[in-house]
Write a structure and sequence with these properties.
The complex is a heterodimer of chains A (800) and B (293). In chain A, 44% of the residues lie in helices and 15% in strands. Chain A has 26 helices and 22 strands. Chain A is elongated, with a radius of gyration of 31 Å. The N terminus of chain A is likely disordered. By secondary structure, chain B is an alpha+beta fold. In chain B, the strands form 4 sheets. Chain B has a 5-stranded antiparallel sheet with strand order 12-11-10-9-13. In chain B, strands 3-6-1-15 form a 4-stranded antiparallel sheet, with no helix packed on it. In chain B, a hairpin with a 5-residue loop joins strand 4 and strand 5.
Chain lengths: 800, 293
């Protein structure tokens, strides 16, 4: 390692102090001879040229971006622990362009081979018939979906988007650790990691000759669009929903590529075709990029318990009305046991050896293989042949280095003899290390890279970059990654400048003005309820504030007004004895839940502001006391929630989605005001009721200016129910409701008002003909009921 | 023997359902030299908006129906006339379980009739160590595959009690086994699990039984609804053998085959799903009447 010492002398002290490859493991920064690998020098020079404080300030920018963007993932290891911050290691993994080309060639060959194998498994089954793959291995595999055997894919291809987990072995070569063909995740995270690393290395990155990622995504988007059925149909991304560990990525990819993000319940099969229910009616879907495991895709023919799928999807697939990305059933290739057969299948099907080997694997169905695995058990892991887990993620029934898993009785030899055909032995994987940042120094951390390939109109394209996972400690055995660690960007570095690229159209392309895409009914429903919950939360805050400020003035909860107000709140499940009532936290939680389903339609800022509100409520809850304390806490929360409303209403594009959000808000506000006036603007209301209404209606100043008298029943009702200029009045919101309804799809049928538009007009007129005198308790109740009925009619027309 | 089969299934939704879809395995199979489907028809009330009849992976007749209108109940009616040959007893080929295991390891066929599908655990038939231990005990001394099937089947019949109240279609096999009670579905799936644990490919047969016994014979259990029994693969010469553990007999001229699968989940008579989830109830009436020749 003589060269290594020279290298170190050239650096300022610190950065590479003590950096040494781990025994027996190769390193990404230095090769076996201690030479720095090509591509790294300028990055190391950049890191060396700046102080630790400067660099960490820049890294913080990357981390800030991820926090602001709300990048998160869920961990389910020990139950749902909720969203976690994204653990980005700021120093990228560098691979030089020449080496990347050979990686790409190996993986492209492998993707083609996998396509041939899966096509055979779902059609003629020659590979089984000729004895190249054991029948029992396929027949026992739960991912071999019998209802799809013989169903030729609409696109003619089974695989369109695949990923490979690769690592560098002790011999310095890259090895495939596992194939991901079901619904590979990580490409969106790789993009986010790139945006963050661009922030962390802003000035340096521009001239660092790093291959850009956008071209890969554009090419894939274009090829998905090209796969659409000749008689129409759209492209959608199918997600299992916000409770999935990678939902953030689904929403991100959908937003980035401009595609509809769908869940199973958005879809149905009508007359053999897959359609999405939208507020503009049923629309055909002819390409579905699924992020859902195939078994859950159709409860009618696959997993019966699935709530995530679409009944009848398989019949649409068999009728070739929809192209699935990837074909349902392609997940069978992820089984470990296939790795045992790939080298031979490659020679058989392509006449070539695998350009990039996969980790050595033996299927224990054969007596000879069993003997070999038993004799070499010390450097193997032995586990289920059908398991789709990567060698980085072992399950409980795995014998590692000859040590039997708990719960499996008998010796290894017994186990192999009894269950051989359902077991494989795989060589234990050792990974290379890559530099990770640690308080001003670089330290070696074991890592593997996930590389993504997309089928485009010109063949497989390899994403020039990837998603690297780093272990937390120094143990180079692959399983260490599972114990938690960090992720990193992967830079493919060229010798010369690279093409600049982004998802934006090229400058010479014609400018097209498009309206936003269609709105799925479920998204409309979530937007509507988001509007309602946010408004409801705000209303609760105002009521609690009014209650507590009066309580702190009088120090007496027994006044008639406070008693009535506390009963009024109780009917709304709000307990005033709790300084910060649980119902408020629940309502905001419901708003976050609704928003969580439509993250692809949301600005990053609005999402951040809503999460901030929820966090603040969480931290306030245990310490806020009734009285003055609660009143001022509500002040803080009101400023935050109006911040969210402001962001949404100032920034959101005025189209169908916004209309549903606005409808939700206006309906909730009009209903709340009608209910409030029914009780507290009544002739029999306790003293102070009128002032309470004006205060909760945030109209104290307007009242003073307009009436120059003390509040009376007439002035209160006039201002809060009938004044078209007061954005807190019932009339204002009924006007808004009617306007929005008239702008929704289908508001006119053959030049006539739709039934819903007529209902809205009737409501509008019913209120407009009232005077403060006639709008009494009974009339207000009638208006409430009419608003309530209108919401049912909206749901019937657009949502269900 | 010729039979006229009628089956009426009523499917009632707790609340009217939009977008209901169903997949049915109701039509008896055409099995050369064994069973001939003279005529058969599956009809619906109300009429579905889409309907497709096809053959599934295992060669069974499947009807798919979709209802785009809101419906509160659906009646599904089967009318079929079937001619069933009386079966000869299975031929003993003298194959041991070890020899069967070696044959299956090198098996190179995954077609519909391949035994390869019927060895591994399937959705409703997991491998249960308790049932495996029972199977080893029951099979002790049986020298051939066929003898093993016979002993295990008769032992299940002897140890289990037919009890239509003890289980439902969702009861796991282990629970039914521990109670030693259940209906034909439980008897069948327990026997499948037992045989698979011994390395014998075993699958599920759904079908009909003649409703009234021939004069002087006892009425068979399971005749008032769809019935189920076991098929086991006993080697290339003996082939598939069908044993009815509920009635302690090999399937014969009283058994009409509707569908073959790995377990109940592959051959559910009516499997339904609707867009808005909600409960449903089903009721089935079956009549299998022999015709005078």
């Amino acid at each position: 390692m003589g060269k290594r010492a020279d290298q170190k002398e050239a650096e300022p002290p610190g950065l590479l102090d003590g950096y040494a490859a781990l025994p027996g493991a190769p390193d990404e920064l230095f090769d076996a001879a201690g030479q720095m690998r090509p591509g790294w020098a300028s990055l190391i020079a950049h890191l060396s040229a700046h102080s630790q404080a400067d660099l960490e300030r820049n890294f913080a920018r990357g981390a800030q971006y991820l926090r602001d963007a709300g990048v998160f993932f869920r961990k389910y290891d020990t139950g749902d622990q909720g969203p976690r911050d994204w653990p980005l290691s700021p120093v990228p993994v560098v691979v030089n362009a020449a080496e990347w080309r050979s990686i790409s060639a190996g993986l492209t060959q492998r993707a083609d081979l996998l396509e041939q194998v899966v096509a055979d498994l779902y059609s003629e089954n020659r590979l089984i018939g000729e004895g190249h793959i054991p029948a029992s291995l396929v027949a026992s595999n739960p991912e071999w979906l019998r209802p799809l055997v013989g169903a030729e894919p609409a696109s003619g291809r089974y695989l369109h988007f695949v990923a490979f987990e690769i690592g560098r072995g002790p011999d310095g070569r890259w090895w495939v650790l596992g194939d991901r063909t079901q619904a590979p995740s990580g490409a969106g995270y790789a993009l986010e990691n790139r945006v963050a690393s661009m922030r962390s290395f802003s000035a340096y990155y521009r001239n660092a000759h790093v291959e850009r990622l956008a071209g890969f995504f554009r090419a894939f988007r274009d090829s998905l669009n090209a796969l659409r059925h000749e008689d129409g149909g759209r492209v959608g991304i199918l997600s299992p929903g916000p409770m999935t560990d990678t939902y953030y990525e689904h929403a991100y990819i959908a937003r980035y590529l401009g595609m509809m993000l769908l869940e199973g319940e958005d879809l149905s099969v009508e007359n053999g075709r897959l359609v999405v229910r939208t507020v503009s009616g049923l629309k055909a879907i002819s390409v579905l990029w699924r992020r859902l495991d195939a078994a859950w895709a159709d409860p009618l023919e696959l997993e019966e318990r699935s709530q995530l799928g679409t009944p009848g999807l398989l019949s649409a697939v068999r009728a070739k009305h929809v192209t699935m990305i990837n074909a349902l059933g392609a997940g069978i290739l992820e089984s470990r046991a296939f790795l045992a057969f790939m080298p031979r299948l490659s020679e058989l099907l392509t006449g070539q050896k695998l350009l990039m080997p996969n980790i050595a694997t033996w299927w224990c169905g054969g007596a000879e293989e069993r003997r070999h695995v038993l004799a070499n058990a010390g450097r193997m892991m032995i586990a289920a042949a059908n398991s789709t887990r990567l060698p980085l993620e072992l399950d409980d029934r795995t014998a590692v280095a000859g040590v039997m898993p708990e719960g499996v009785p008998g010796s290894l030899a017994d186990w192999l003899e009894a269950e051989g055909p359902s077991l494989v032995g795989q060589e234990l994987v050792t990974l290379s290390t890559t530099p990770a940042w640690s308080a001003g120094r670089l330290v070696p951390r074991p890592m593997s890279i996930r590389v993504f390939l997309a089928r485009t109109q010109t063949g497989w394209q390899v994403m020039p970059g990837g998603y690297a996972r780093l272990a937390a400690g120094e143990d180079p055995s692959a399983v260490s990654i599972r114990r938690g660690g960090t992720v990193a960007d992967v830079w493919v570095v060229s010798d010369g400048p690279v093409a600049q690229d982004s998802m934006l159209p090229h400058q010479n392309e014609t400018f097209i003005r498009r309206l936003p895409g269609i709105l799925p009914s479920r998204a409309a429903d979530n937007l509507f309820w988001l509007g309602r919950y946010v408004e409801r939360a705000e209303g609760i805050m105002r009521l609690i504030r009014s209650y507590n400020s009066r309580l702190s003035d009088t120090q007496d909860a027994d006044t008639p007004l406070l008693e009535q107000l506390s009963t009024y709140l109780e009917h709304r499940d709000v307990a005033v004895e709790e300084g910060l009532p649980k119902e408020l936290a629940d309502t905001v939680g419901s708003a976050v839940f609704s928003a969580g389903h439509i993250r692809d339609r949301f600005s990053v800022d609005a999402w951040a502001s809503l999460s901030d509100l929820q966090r603040t409520i969480g931290s306030m809850t245990p310490r806020v006391q009734p009285g003055d304390d609660a009143a001022s806490a509500m002040g803080v929360l009101l400023r935050k929630i109006t911040g969210f409303s402001g962001l949404v209403h100032d920034n959101m594009y005025r189209f169908t989605g916004w209309r549903f959000l606005t409808l939700g808000r206006s309906i909730e506000r009009a209903l709340a005001m009608a209910n409030l006036l029914t009780v507290f603007a009544d002739r029999d209301a306790p003293e102070g009721g009128f002032d309470l209404c004006v205060e909760v209606g945030d109209s104290v100043m307007s009242h003073r200016r307009r009436y120059s008298v003390t509040t009376s029943r007439e002035t209160t009702v006039d201002l809060l129910a009938l004044d078209l200029l007061n954005p807190r009045s019932i009339a204002y919101h009924i006007d808004e409701i009617r306007n929005q309804i008239n702008l929704l799809p289908g508001a006119e049928v053959n030049g006539q008002l739709s039934a819903l538009s007529r209902t809205a007009l009737r409501l509008h007129t019913d209120l407009a003909v009232h005077t403060p005198r006639t709008l009494d308790r009974a009339a207000l109740k009638a208006i409430s009921k009419a608003i309530y009925d209108l919401t049912t009619e909206i749901a019937d027309s657009y949502i269900s | 023997m010729r039979y006229d089969i009628t089956s009426l299934i009523t499917y009632t939704f707790v609340s009217p359902a939009a977008g209901a879809r169903q997949i049915m395995h109701l039509m008896p199979l055409e099995l050369p030299l064994r069973q001939h489907l003279v005529a058969g028809r599956v009809s619906f009330d109300p009429e579905p908006s889409t309907r497709r009849d096809r053959v599934d992976f295992f060669g069974n007749c499947v009807t798919e129906a979709g209802f785009s209108e809101t419906v509160s109940d659906i009646s599904i009616r089967l009318h079929a006339r079937v001619k069933v040959e009386s079966a000869a007893p299975p031929r003993e080929q003298g194959l041991t379980r070890e020899a069967l295991g070696a044959l299956l390891l090198d098996w190179s066929d995954v077609g519909a009739q391949s035994p390869a599908h019927f060895l591994a655990p399937s959705p409703k038939v997991p491998l249960e160590p308790v049932i495996a231990a029972f199977a080893r005990h029951a099979a002790a001394g049986a020298e051939t595959v066929l003898a093993t099937v016979d002993r295990v089947g008769r032992r299940i019949h002897a140890d289990m009690k037919f009890d239509s109240k003890a289980t439902t279609v969702r009861t796991p096999i282990l629970e039914a086994f521990e109670k030693r009670r259940g209906v034909c579905q439980d008897f069948t799936q327990i026997m499948i699990s037992a045989l698979r644990s011994l390395g014998i490919p075993a699958g599920y047969v759904s079908g009909f039984l003649r409703t009234l016994p021939p004069p002087g014979k006892p009425r068979l259990e399971g005749a008032d609804a769809m019935h189920a029994w076991v098929r086991a693969w006993c080697g290339p010469e003996t082939g598939w053998v069908e044993f009815d553990p509920t009635n302690d007999m090999y399937a014969g001229a009283d058994h009409v085959v509707v569908a073959y699968g790995r377990d109940y989940s592959d051959v559910v008579p009516v499997r339904g799903a609707m867009r808005i989830s909600g409960g449903h109830k089903t009721k089935q009436v079956v009549d299998v009447v022999p015709l005078e020749d």
